[in-house]
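User: Sorry, folds how?
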Amino acid sequence: MSQDLFRAAAEAGPDALFIFSNVRDPDGTLVNLCFAELNSQAESLVSMERASLIGRKLTDVFLQKQNQGLLRRLLDVSEKRSPLELEVPNSNRQVKARWLRLHAAALTEGVAVWARDISAAKKADEILADHQTEVLNAFRMSALSEMASGVAHEINNPLAIVQALTEHLQSLSTEGPIDVATLLSLSKKIQTNVERVAKVTRGLLAFSRDAENDPFHEVPFQRILDTVLELCGNRFRNNEVDFQIKPFDQELMIQCRSLALSQAILNLLLNAFDATQKQLQREAQRWIRLEVKDLGNHVSIEIADSGPGVPEKIRRKIMEPFFTTKEIGKGTGLGLSAAKGIIEGHGGTLIFEETSPFTLFKAILPKRQDSAGTIEV
């Protein structure tokens, strides 16, 4: 290929192109790269003219102390033919660093590197991630407000008992000394009800925060279920929804982000509850059924409900973010998509069983994170 033809081809593309020749020591070991050619896009990217770069070593131009590994990384990219995203600091500290996506290919005695500035795309990704976090936080607050009446009942009942027991203690104290057995009995009842309130409060705090980056711990699945039921059990009872849990091994353990998984299961249960409220025959029994199955290396969590089902035309959309069948102002459309994201973050999958006679969602999760991968159904 002639020099003119090469330059025409190099200038035609949108990316910066650098051609490096290998620099070897007397033993033949590759120790550096030398600028052999570059296009005008490359000149703009590095804010340096071609004439000032040709013949110079890469490490003499760019590799400052914090970037000593770049040479090795460029060579790895050329060998593996996989892109490298790299944050490049600016010599002017008041100017933000730039993000570059690099592709490289090995030549006979050198390396060709294509570079593209992806700083704007990275910034857009950051803005989108921040927005998604804000929306998910809003969703959690919305879900909490929907549960408020049931949770208030869970708190008010034990508080009323504590108040009555305290008044009884005060009354007994006016009658004379209180025997130790009576004092211990009343104090134990007070402690039990205080612990009930604390448990509900911890559940509320857990559900209200982002737990998707928590470390993985092995916990009994029953503990996760207990946390969920503290938040939604009373709501089911108040609305005459029969919540059925099929017996399962109480010693079943799962390695997970327990608070995040609790949030996912709660979302699925609240989705099932909303479905039961749409039953056309109000006198018909409304129910939600939860079944946990041990699949060896995996755990299956099935949640079915007596609701009217999901119309066929929207089944492919129900797990998409912001998709909702509720009227405006009644739902965020994030319950199922948030649950799906958490479950997939555990190496699992969330399935809508279209062949089931009832609405049925099945979450399949690895018992341990080192067994994530092949899913047993």
Q: What stands out?
A: Residues 373-377 have pLDDT under 50 and may be disordered.
